[in-house]
Each structure stands twice: as structure tokens, then as C-alpha cells.
Amino acid sequence: MSGAALGLEIVFVFFLALFLLHRYGDFKKQHRLVIIATLLAWYLCFLIVFILPLDVSTTIYNRCKLAVNSSPAESNGSYVTLAPSKQKCFKPWSYIPNGIMPIFWRVVYWTSQFLTWILLPFMQSYARSGGFSITGKIKTALIENAIYYGTYLLIFGAFLIYVAVNPNFNLQWNQLQTIGIAAANTWGLFLLVLLLGYGLVEIPRSHWNGAKRGYLLMKTYFKAAKLMTEKADAEENLEDIMEEVRKVSESIKYNHPLRKCVDTILKKCPTEYQERMGRNMDDYEDFDERQNSYPSEKSLVKLHKQVIYSVQRHRRTQVQWQILLEQAFYLEDVAKNETSATRQFVHTFRSQEPENKLVQYFYTPTVEWYWECLLRPWFYRVLAVVLATFSVIVVWSECTFFSTKPVLSLFAVFIQLAEKTYNYIYIEMACFLTIFFLSICVYSTVFRIRVFNYYYLASHHQTDAYSLLFSGMLFCRLTPPLCLNFLGLTHMDATISHKNTQPTAYTSIMGSMRVLSFIADGFYIYYPMLVVILCIATYFSLGTRCLNLLGFQQFMGDSEMTSDLIDEGKELIKREKRKRQRQEEGENRRREWKERYGNRDDSTRNRVVHTDQKESSFSETSISRPLSKYTRSNGRTERDRIELLQDAEPLDFNADSINDDPLELDSGR
């Protein structure tokens, strides 16, 4: 099994990242480079989280071997003896051979840092650029990132000059590398504690509220009112942008040098707008620079950027509105079925997507009723209690992990108890659950954050390229300090435990933080205690109340504005529900009519066609040759006759004279 666990987790994490990216991104419409870069960033961050428990168990085994192989006299050397010299060490099932983990961590860490600080910011600007060529987009991205990169180069250059001038510093390359890593981790830890303080409270509370049917339904009504406002705003914005595109398309004709740019913009517009503009265009007119003023290429680039943004926003709001409607209808069905005497779940509307036959076989209406109306609320309550317990343990450990005598961090106590018996499965499970819970608290907050309309991770393939790349940047910056914080909570980091023991392979690539003692002994120790204040602020919803005072509508039960939006959303859902019911009733009537009279209509239609053919053949043979000049040609089809009848104009009875001869009337017309 040597190295097999590492290989299995590498494959599993890849498919996990691919699944999440498929849920939020759109593989068909978005650029391949955006998909690849985001997938790589997510994959590396998830990989660090899943592989770190294997590094911990391997390190504990290596410490045991060193303790067994070293004599008591040698225990005062490089490593401290952790076990008696005659104790036998058991190799873990997931043991990774020496030399693999340092190389693995070095490749993963530096690749993620290259992505988050260099490649992904550049690709963000490239994706948002409205240029019409690769060269133009690259130029725009370089200009936008000049200040971003220049700031870092200025700070780093000033630091190098200070080190070179000051004789007290004699830094080598390894120490400079450690300082750079410490600076990146400090920035990440600053953001990590903010996100962690929110997630530790909001995740258990959201699951507890998930057991309240009335709460979920009221919140869905509130979301419907807000989303309808956003949807109307997106439609209005799209109409304004399309009007500008129409004016530009009419002014720039087919032989204008910028016509290719206009065609590129038109391809990004929705289909109905393309058809409308295509009907109103007249490309047979030549352009004249002396008579008309034409937009510049720079203004077309700006318009192209606006078209991409407005179309993406409009499509996202349309999809989210349909998803929210389905959620509201389902919650209303749950509220109705709770008082059902038959104990069978009845849906108001049929599912628009075909369900799996296997799911239909096991998930019957009776099973669905017991799960939705009886078991699910209790399951969510139990899960919320478990998550709240984990949150309390995390908060306690964050405030006490610096204490080594006695050991107050509960995670460190659990790991040290398992280390005495060398129960590697328990060690790996405890480490995995701990770091997985921390990751869920942090990453779920990243998925919930919405910075106006610039950054927003929307499911069902509705996330734009800019938001995907920005999420990759955040993950790459948050994951390294998250792992260091986990190693500190479990006292696997020598900087925290103050023991001269063998470090983990992950800690070894970070270097010794003693180069910057004020960070290692100050910021890393005391800043995580701020999570207590953030948890208290999240529990009392101070951030939500502040946003509500600033004019951003937030769901608050004691707010008059929230009540008004709930009533508005409820009326919107009722209107959409009536519309859906009318559509289904119409479809049912058409289906019943077709099933009842479909065969009869077909047989009647066949008899009528057969009779017409007989009459037409009889009339053609009975008409004399002299009258053939007054009749139509026999080669005319039935479609031509119908079209002539449809094109015939009604008689004008107000005219001075009426011509009774239809042939003269037709010739005159």
C-alpha cells in the first residue's frame, strides 16, 4: 500500500474539483484557458487539504523510528526521544516513502503561488477585456495589472535596499524565500480569520434554520422579491445596451474598416436581438466619412465589454429566477403535505426534468413524505448540533493552541493520545475531520460572498470567467495559512509546540519562521484569537444590520422592509404559480383533444384530400381546350393556390365602380 493512498486521493480530488467546477462554470461557452486555470487552482487547494493528514501520520511514524533507533545518550541531539528505545513502531497503511512528500509539497505550493499572484490576476483582466484580438486583450491586461505588479515590486525592492544597507542583516536566499512565504501567509491569515469567524456560526445556524419550514419559505419569498428587482434591472440594462449596438450597427456599414468588430459584438448578443437587427440593416449603402461621424475602435471595445457583461447578467438572472420558482413551489408543497392524512407526497406541478427510474422505484411518494415532512427536520437539527459542537471546539483551540504546558487545544490532545498508541487510522480520521471542517467554514464563505455584481459564484453554470478566476485566487491564498493554522492547532508545528522534533514535510518547505520573530511569536499566535469577536458579531448579525442600515436589503425578521419584501415575493410566486397552472391546463386539454379526436381528424382529412383529388381530376378532363387560356397551369401546386387566395385583397365597396369580372380585377391588381 506504499504510495497507493496518495495516488487514490490525487485522482479522487481531481474529479471532486472537476465536479464543482462543472456545477458553477460552463465548459461549452467559457474559454478553455479560464476553465483549465480555475480547475488547476481548485485542484491544488483541495489536494493540500486531503493530503495533509497523510503527511501527519507519516511524520509520526518517522518520529517513532528515530526514537527507537536512537539511544538514550543520543536523545539530546537532533531529535527528542518520544518513545522507549525498545518500543516497536508500526508502519501506517498510508505510509509515503521518504523524499516524495517534500518534492510534492514544493511543486504544489509554488504552483499555487504562481497562479494566485501572477497568472490568475492577468487572466482576470484578459477575460474582462473587450478587445477584438488576442494582442489587444493582452495589452489591456498588462496595463490594468501594471499598478498591481508595480506595487509588489516597489515593496520588495525597498526591502532589498534596506537589507543591503543595514549591516545588522545578513540574509541569504533561503531566508529571503522564507520572508516572502511569511508575507504571503500573513496576508492569507488576515483574510482567513475573517472568513472563519463567519463560517463557524453561519453554517450551524443555517442548518438549524433549515429545519424550520416557515423560515425557509419566508426567506424564499424575500429572495424572490430581490431577484425580481435584479432581473428587471438586468433586462432594462440589456435593452439599453442593445439599443446602442443597433445604432452602431446601422451607422457602420458592410465596407467600413470596423465592420468586423461590429460583427463580433453582434455574435455576443442574444439570438432574438440578432434577428431584429438583421432585419433592420441595409448594408447596400456605402459609408461616407465626410457626412457621418463613426465611433472609434476604443468605444467599440468598451461597448463589447458592456455587451458581454449585460448578456451574462441577464442569462444568470433568468436561470436563477426559474430555480427559485421551483424551490418556492416545492416548499409550498411541503407545507401543504404536512397535514396530509394519506402520508403520500403530492406535487402541484410535474417535474420538468425526467427522473431516474431507479430513484422513482426507491424514492416513492410515501418515502418522500416521511423524509420531507418527518425525518428531514430532525436530521437537520442533529446535524446543526454536531456542527455547533465542532465550532465551539475550534474557537476554544484557536484561543489556547499556544499553550503547551498544559496542552489546552482539544485537537492537540486528541492527536497526542492517538500518537501514544500509534493508531494511524484514528490520527488520519481526526486530522481529516478537523481540516475538512475548517475548509468547509472558509470555502463556503467564499462561495457565499457577493461583491455587488463583480464577484458572484452562481450555481447551474451561471458563474462568469472573472468570478471563477477570482475564486481560484482566493483559494490559493487561503489554503497555505489554513494548513499552517491546522498544524498549529494539533501542535504538529515546531514553532507552536517548541519541541525540537522532526517537522512535517509541509512545514519544512515553509522554512523557519524564526527569521521574523515578531510574526512567528506575535501575529501567528494572537491574531487567531480575533475569531471569538467575529463569531459574536456573526451570532448577533451585526454585519447584516449594518448593511441593512446602508440600504442593502437583508433578511431580518424584525424589519419592516423585510416584511414588505416577503409580501411582495409571495404575490410574485402566486402570479407565477397561476401562470404555470394555466399552461399545464392548456397542455392537458390539447393532449386530451388529440387523444380523443386525433384519429378521427386524420381519417376525415384523408377522405377530404381523396375527394378533392377526384374532383380536380374530373374538372381537368372536362374543361375544353379553348378555355385553357383562362385557367391556371396544371403544374401549379396546391400551395400556390392557397397563397393566391391569401394574397387576394377584399373588394372596396366604397369605390365608384365595381368590376364584376374577377379576371379583370386580378389583372388590374
Automatic annotation (TrEMBL):
<keyword id="KW-0175">Coiled coil</keyword>
<comment type="similarity">
    <text>Belongs to the LIMR family.</text>
</comment>
<feature type="compositionally biased region" description="Basic and acidic residues">
    <location>
        <begin position="635"/>
        <end position="644"/>
    </location>
</feature>
<keyword id="KW-1133">Transmembrane helix</keyword>
<dbReference type="InterPro" id="IPR006876">
    <property type="entry name" value="LMBR1-like_membr_prot"/>
</dbReference>
<feature type="transmembrane region" description="Helical">
    <location>
        <begin position="466"/>
        <end position="489"/>
    </location>
</feature>
<feature type="transmembrane region" description="Helical">
    <location>
        <begin position="6"/>
        <end position="21"/>
    </location>
</feature>
<feature type="transmembrane region" description="Helical">
    <location>
        <begin position="146"/>
        <end position="165"/>
    </location>
</feature>
<dbReference type="Pfam" id="PF04791">
    <property type="entry name" value="LMBR1"/>
</dbReference>
<dbReference type="GO" id="GO:0071875">
    <property type="term" value="P:adrenergic receptor signaling pathway"/>
</dbReference>
<protein>
    <submittedName>
        <fullName>LMBD2 protein</fullName>
    </submittedName>
</protein>
<feature type="region of interest" description="Disordered">
    <location>
        <begin position="576"/>
        <end position="669"/>
    </location>
</feature>
<feature type="transmembrane region" description="Helical">
    <location>
        <begin position="523"/>
        <end position="542"/>
    </location>
</feature>
<feature type="transmembrane region" description="Helical">
    <location>
        <begin position="177"/>
        <end position="201"/>
    </location>
</feature>
<feature type="transmembrane region" description="Helical">
    <location>
        <begin position="425"/>
        <end position="446"/>
    </location>
</feature>
<feature type="transmembrane region" description="Helical">
    <location>
        <begin position="378"/>
        <end position="396"/>
    </location>
</feature>
<dbReference type="InterPro" id="IPR051584">
    <property type="entry name" value="GPCR-associated_LMBR1"/>
</dbReference>
<feature type="transmembrane region" description="Helical">
    <location>
        <begin position="103"/>
        <end position="126"/>
    </location>
</feature>
<keyword id="KW-0472">Membrane</keyword>
<feature type="compositionally biased region" description="Acidic residues">
    <location>
        <begin position="658"/>
        <end position="669"/>
    </location>
</feature>
<feature type="coiled-coil region">
    <location>
        <begin position="224"/>
        <end position="251"/>
    </location>
</feature>
<feature type="compositionally biased region" description="Basic and acidic residues">
    <location>
        <begin position="582"/>
        <end position="617"/>
    </location>
</feature>
<dbReference type="GO" id="GO:0016020">
    <property type="term" value="C:membrane"/>
</dbReference>
<feature type="transmembrane region" description="Helical">
    <location>
        <begin position="33"/>
        <end position="52"/>
    </location>
</feature>
<feature type="compositionally biased region" description="Polar residues">
    <location>
        <begin position="618"/>
        <end position="634"/>
    </location>
</feature>
<keyword id="KW-0812">Transmembrane</keyword>
